[in-house]
């Protein structure tokens, strides 16, 4: 049987953006826009009503911004995946979004096929960031090595076994489960089990936060 379509909620205070995204996503048979709302303050009610798998979230909104709304949703027992979709690409926005638990960060000028691919990817449990955003995040974290987060990150990673640390390091480089499996001669199922253990041991929400922790710790130093 065919899998049900990925349910998508659009959150943006620009009505034209919401309409454009809805029309674009309607062309993908495996995606379904279940609702759109104009402010982060409306997100919780919309998620409760429509149960989306993925939320496309703007950052700058009048009452509750996308970063606060992301943190609110990721605190739920069964949160949807969240992709930050915005015109703002400052280092601070990127890191705050990732630390809040977003699974991806894309700029609004990202080509439509890449947005569709990102939704499919995060719905399948793989994070998605544009290459430019990933490079910016890694460079920014590397430059802030004196940050007190480094000691905390290294302390957390010291809890891991050698195998878990190897998987965490590859997650930090943006590798998919399949790529990690090939690198370490593991099955994809085994890699998934490792990632699940990492999330539990490190008390994190998703693999993007694992990647941030790895970069905070400068694991490759």
In short:
The protein has 221 residues and is an alpha/beta fold. Helices cover 53% and strands 13% of the residues.
Describe the structure.
With 221 residues, this protein is of the alpha/beta class. Helices cover 53% and strands 13% of the residues. It has eleven helices and six strands. The chain has a six-stranded parallel beta sheet, with helices on both faces. The mean pLDDT is 85.
Please describe the topology of this protein:
Layout: E1 6-11, H1 15-26, E2 31-37, H2 43-50, E3 54-57, H3 66-74, E4 81-86, H4 91-100, E5 104-107, H5 112-123, E6 128-129, H6 131-143, H7 149-157, H8 162-172, H9 177-184, H10 188-202, H11 207-217
Parallel strand pairs: 1-2, 1-3, 3-4, 4-5, 5-6
Helix pairs in contact: 3-4, 7-11, 8-10, 8-11, 9-10
List keywords for this structure.
53% helix; globular; 11 helices; 221 residues; alpha/beta; 6-stranded parallel sheet
Question: How many distinct helices?
Answer: 11
Radius of gyration: 17 Å
Sheet-strand content, in percent, reads 5-15%
Report strand order across the widest sheet: 2-1-3-4-5-6
Number of strands: 6
Sketch the topology as an H/E string, one letter per element.
EHEHEHEHEHEHHHHHH
First-residue to last-residue Cα separation:
48 Å
Mean pLDDT: 85
Oligomer classification: single chain
Shape annotation:
globular
């Amino acid at each position: 049987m065919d899998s049900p379509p990925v349910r998508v909620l659009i959150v943006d205070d620009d009505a034209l953006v919401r309409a454009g995204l809805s029309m674009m996503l309607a062309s993908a048979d495996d995606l379904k826009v279940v609702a759109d709302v104009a402010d982060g303050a409306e997100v919780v009610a919309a998620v409760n009503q429509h149960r989306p798998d993925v939320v496309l979230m703007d950052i700058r909104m009048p009452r509750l911004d996308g970063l606060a709304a992301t943190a609110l949703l990721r605190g739920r027992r069964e949160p949807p995946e969240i992709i930050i979709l915005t015109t703002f690409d400052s280092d601070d926005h990127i890191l705050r979004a990732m630390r809040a638990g977003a699974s991806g960060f894309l700029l609004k000028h990202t080509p439509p096929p890449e947005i569709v691919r990102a939704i499919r990817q995060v719905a399948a449990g793989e994070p998605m960031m544009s290459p430019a955003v990933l490079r910016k995040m890694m460079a920014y974290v590397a430059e802030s090595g004196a940050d007190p987060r480094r000691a905390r990150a290294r302390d957390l990673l010291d809890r891991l076994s050698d195998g878990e640390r190897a998987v965490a390091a590859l997650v930090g480089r943006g590798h998919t489960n399949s790529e990690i499996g090939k690198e370490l001669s593991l099955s994809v199922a085994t890699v998934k089990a490792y990632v699940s253990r990492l999330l539990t041991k490190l008390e994190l929400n998703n693999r993007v936060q694992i990647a941030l922790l790895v970069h905070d710790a400068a694991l490759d130093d």
